[in-house]
Amino acid sequence: MADSPLRQALDCSDNAIALTNRDRQVVYVNQGFTRLFGFTSDEARGRYLSDMLQGPHTHQGLTEAIRSGLRLQGHYHGDALIYSRDGQPRWVSMVVNKADEAQGGPGGSITVLTDITLTKMHEVLQKRVLESMVSETSLPELMTRVCKEVENIAPEVTASILAVDTNGRVHPLAAPGLPDHICAALDGVQIGPNVGSCGTAAYLGKPVVTTSIATDPRWDDYRALFESTGLKACWSSPIKNHQGLVVGTFAFYFKEPREPNALHKSLVQVCLHLCALAIERDASRQRIHQLAFFDGLTGLPNRAMFRNSAERALSSMARDHQTGALLFVDLDRFKQVNDTQGHAAGDTLLRVVAQRLGECVRAQDCIGRLSGDEFVLLLSNCTTEQAVQTAQRVLGSIAMPVDIQGQINLPSASVGISIYPYDGTDIDTLVRHADQAMYQAKSDHRHSLQLFSQEMNRRAQERAAMERALHHALERGELTLHYQPQITSDPVLALHGMEALARWSHPEWGPVSPAQFIPLAEEAGLIPALTHWLVNEVCQQINTWRAAGIAVPHVAVNLSGRSFHQKGFAQNVSNTLRQHGLAAHDLLLEITESVMMDAREVTQENIELLSQQGFRLSLDDFGTGYSSLSYLHRLPITELKLDKSFVQDLEHSETARALTISVLSIAKSLGMTVVAEGVETSQQCRWLKEHGCEVMQGYLLGRPMPAHMLHAWSLEASAVCCS
Ligand SMILES: Nc1nc2c(ncn2[C@@H]2O[C@H](COP(=O)(O)O[C@H]3[C@@H](O)[C@H](n4cnc5c(=O)[nH]c(N)nc54)O[C@@H]3COP(=O)(O)O)[C@@H](O)[C@H]2O)c(=O)[nH]1
Asked: Which superkingdom does the taxonomy of this entry point to (predicted)?
């Protein structure tokens, strides 16, 4: 074939072509073969292809498969990993055909090899990496696999992959060929313009080729660290996510000063894409994990996460026969911070408290935020005394002043403690019992701690039973209204109005005090239904009285602060009134100081609308709260109800008398009526009258009564002596 046109044509081909004789010895290779495998025609002639091209990762059965293909079918076709003269791996597509002498062939075979290294590289890397992703392999493991695959394909390379965090610090993900102490030294290094090849590539967002580590000034700070590795050159490329942000670096180190070749470039192209995919996927997984298991506001484990770790801690305590404690921490008057300073202030307070709680626990303890202002701590391996000491530390730490938007807050908390295993062996029971103890701490004396007891459990169960019964009380007609008269004292005795007071008579338990069931209704979310029923009942009753000729100027209704959190509440009240043909002045709405101070937008909207529609507000329990007088003239308040605690102390307390005179004077100057509550004696009545109190309410004048008794009461009322 010497210099024949056929030979010239074969030499031009990109494929490697080899002819063998009947003894399987090479008789001819084209130039494509030399280009691909490095063997010249002379070097190849007389040798076996299998001897020349097999390498460490060539399939063991390849030669036998080719021989059997030729024997049985006269040809063989398949992909194989073989090696060039200098040990470079090459994936080839191999077609081997018999070349019988009878048909003019050399007697052995014609082998055509097409280089498919790039395609195969893609396929192998992509397949392995994607498979690993599906099987939930960890990111470092996955990245180690990428490095190892790359080092298999290009044995002259030592690969490394670093992650770059959002603060621009690098963290080694995989570098199987680098010593551990180098990875440890690189962890946390800040990227920059002269931070080796990787730190610089990450900083610049483009590849950095260091052909000689010995002379590259960007390596000045890292040369000594790498000295023992014998690595002389480095080529690092940034890994970018889909938004183009650098999330890592992929580097090739070489043992001699050099530049990357075409194979290296192709490898990097494939790997950058896969690494970006894997790193982004891992980041999403971490984000999902964070969202699913951590509280977004405080960063503390959420209920689910706390539960998981607490259950593990309980198992370990059970195994080691240890005792532990669950602390249930609830902030005191947190709602007040939200209502008066706004939700941003409330959020800041919660973050500060979470941080303080974190500082009170040891590494082996679990902490979590259950909801709102409720936090839990599970203390492992601790005695009751140690739990009490930790709870005291928690109370002390929470009580430190907090500056929120320039306003100093003095937070406090109540803590309930349940002890493992005595108060419960599972997490739900321990949390429930610690919650009951916390409830007790709060009702006894805020900013205190309380250990759980079985008595608390009994009371909590009663409370829960009452809450369940209350859900049915409305529909079963167990709730009714009583009315208490309010009388003017000056100039003559006359009916000022009636106050509607809810009554619940349970079929088994008998009467339940509103002081007990109204807070329960608030906790159980029953206030909207209760208030709707209340306003409707009162409207009906006013019409019934008026139709019977009983002149009731207005009825005062007690409104829970929760009603004002309901969008459209003011409109509902107004609509109900209209449906009964009544006007705004037929009702007087009693609110407490907490409503007046509530900064919520919805509360303000409801108050504003009620005011626009002509409703009058009466401020209940005046003097018992933390009255801010500035609100009095800003809101449509026409009446102050002097709390009965003042009235009942009038006869023996100078302070009560002084405060009552102040309230009467404030009301007078603001043009408001004062209704004195809880007037029980004629002395109280007389004193109040003498000091200018115009309206009184109390057992002396009339107890709360069913509506039908008003007529009978009015006949007797003239007998009331207040003079
Ligand atoms: N949101 C709503 N709150 C309501 C409703 N009905 C009642 N309540 C609130 O429950 C608390 C307890 O009420 P009650 O047991 O009815 O006590 C009231 C009167 O019976 C009592 N009172 C009246 N006169 C005297 C007296 O001379 N001595 C004395 N010891 N007690 C007396 O005072 C209560 C009236 O309080 P106030 O509302 O502050 O005027 C109570 O806070 C009710 O507000 C309801 O429908 N919704």
From this structure: Bacteria
Which residues 6+ apart lie within 8 Å of 199 measured at CB? 170, 189, 190, 191, 192
Mean confidence (pLDDT) of the chain: 91
Say how far apart CA 635 and CA 616 lie, in whole Å: 9
Domain parsing of the chain, residue ranges: 5-115, 120-292, 303-452, 478-716
Architecture of domain 5-115: 2-Layer Sandwich (3.30)
Lowest mean pLDDT among 34-38, 151-155, 218-222, 574-578: 151-155
- Of all atoms in ligand 1, which is nearest to the CA of residue 560? 1
Contact yes or no for 717/489 (Cβ under 8 A): no
**CA separation for the pair 59, 235 (Å, rounded):** 31
Q: What is the pLDDT of residue 721?
A: 43
Mean pLDDT within 376-404: 95
Is the domain spanning 478-716 CATH 3.20.20.450? The answer is yes
Which conformational region is residue 499 in: left (phi greater than 0), alpha (psi within -120 to 50 degrees), or beta? beta
Q: Atom 46 of ligand 1 has which residue's CA nearest to it?
A: 502
The rounded Å distance from CA 222 to ligand 1 centre is 79
Q: Is 558 in the pocket of ligand 1 (CB under 6 A)?
A: yes
Closest CA to 198 of 178, 219, 220: 219
Whether 515 is in the pocket of ligand 1, judged by its Cβ within 6 Å, is yes
Helix, strand or coil, per DSSP, at residue 147: helix
Which of the pair, 293 or 132, is modelled with greater confidence?
Answer: 293
CATH 3.30.450.40 fits 120-292, yes or no: yes
Determine the CATH number of domain 303-452: 3.30.70.270
Say yes or no: do domains 120-292 and 478-716 share a fold. no
pTM of the shown model: 0.54
Eight-class DSSP state of 398: H
Atom of ligand 1 nearest to the CA of 502: 6
Interface ipTM = 0.94
Test site for ligand 1: of 558, 620, 645, 682, most ligand atoms within 8 A of the Cβ:
558
Tracing tokens 């099987």 back to the chain, one arrives at 135
The tens digit of pLDDT for each residue in 19-54 reads 999 999 999 999 999 999 999 999 999 999 999 999
- Ligand 1 pocket, 484 CB below 6 A? yes
